[in-house]
Amino acid sequence: MTDRDRSRKDASIRGGANTHTLWLVGLLLVGGACDAAPPSKPEQDLPIPIPELEERLERRGPKAHLQRIDVYGAERKNAAGARVVLLFEGAPLFHQKQLPARGVLPARIAIELVDTDWGKSVPVSQTVGRGGVERVRLAMPNPRVVIDLQPGASGRVFYFTDPYRIVIDVNADGATRTKKRRPVVVLDPGHGGDEPGAANDEYDLVEAKLALEIAKLTKDRLRAIMPSARVLLTRDDDTSLSLEARCALANAMEADVFVSIHFNASLEEIRKGGVTTFVLDTTNNRQALRLAARENGTRVAEVTGIQTLLARLHRRGQTNESLRLASKIQRRTLKHGRAVLPRLADRGVRRAMFYVLVGARMPAVLVETSFLTYEPEARALTTLNYRRALADGTASGIASYLRAR
Question: Please, which contacts does 179-183 make with residues 24 or more away whose CB atoms are closer than 8 Å?
Fold first, then answer.
């Protein structure tokens, strides 16, 4: 285990005499509750320094370093939201405050960092001006990142590990958004660029390239059978795209549906392949945990460590709709796929902790459309006929869901 791995494992969020587990629950619940616009309270100045944290916290790893601040989803003029991601080397101790507007200061979300520094490459201030985020800035003397919110905006805070990222999802004021006149579907071809995903060298199959082709075919088919739908891709070429950026685009576009397209694989010999459609939720299924770890680019331990809190916080009100969408996509993809490959197996609708689905404000699913490492499906995937059948099934399932709303 490297020093970096140790620092990640030591990551915790603490406050006062509370244990890190209790403080983590408190952080995430407060982050989720900010959508409810709690009554304004007088702003509490951030202490300089933080006596409680200073006295009770003991770092066992090296000091954390803020490497970069990325803002996703705010590219469009009328973006309905934005996602701010703080990327760290090491794992910081931190806590957050929701600060109401006071005088000339707007409402803010302050991420207070303990025993953390940043380099000169991190901008002191970034003006955004869209998606509910006015500005992102660094503040001292106790290091913190402050997100200045636009009027009416709200946000929630959570984190990912390996590498360690603190994520702030901001929801813009609904009254300022453009009224949507037709359904919006965001298709997400998994992987891409320097993350090719699974592969089958014997049949020259690469997950990133196949996912992109299936997504483009699905887009064309969906627009043909449902002309009123607006269909967007998170990427339209073989380029890298972070997991955080994919969901942020769907939120910014106020999408009605978010579908991430992938292909399954196994290092072990399997007796059957098949189609699986996942929704975000907790699971103890070993295979689902291992698959989520692969798609997340992390370890199983990292998935199990935070899956319960994240899944419950962000999907409580959306799981049922996501299950309805998943059921329709699963059924239609099987039907169309079996027209070409009659023995295509039904692996069902399942639950797993996929990072790409966390924070989605619409029904969202991840589809593993076939197995690259199961010989009959790998061979079929070399034919346009089978690839088109899978895309037709996915498009048909999405259209069926949208029409039944």
Answer: 180/254, 182/228, 182/229, 182/230, 183/226, 183/228, 183/229, 183/230, 183/256, 183/257, 183/402
In whole angstroms, what is the distance from residue 215 CA to residue 341 CA? 20
Q: What is the CA radius of gyration of the chain?
A: 22
Estimate the share of the chain in helix, then strand, then coil, as percent rounded to the nearest 5: 35, 30, 35
pTM of the model: 0.77
On whether the CB atoms of residues 350 and 185 are closer than 8 A, the answer is no
CATH number, domain of 60, equals: 2.60.40.3500
> Are residues 92 and 230 located together in one domain of the fold?
no
Give the pair of three-digit tokens for residue 175: 């009254």
* The two three-digit tokens of residue 20, written as one number: 């890190």
> What is the pairing mode between strands 81-89 and 64-72?
antiparallel
CATH code for the domain in which residue 196 is found: 3.40.630.40
Among 123, 148, 174, residue at a domain's last position:
174
What is the average pLDDT across 205-231? 97
- Average of pLDDT values for 19-43? 33
* H or E element, residue 83: strand 81-89
Q: Which of 123, 144, 174 is the last residue of a domain?
A: 174
CA nearest neighbour of 68 among 164, 152, 139, 155? 164
**Contact yes or no for 166/82 (Cβ under 8 A):** no
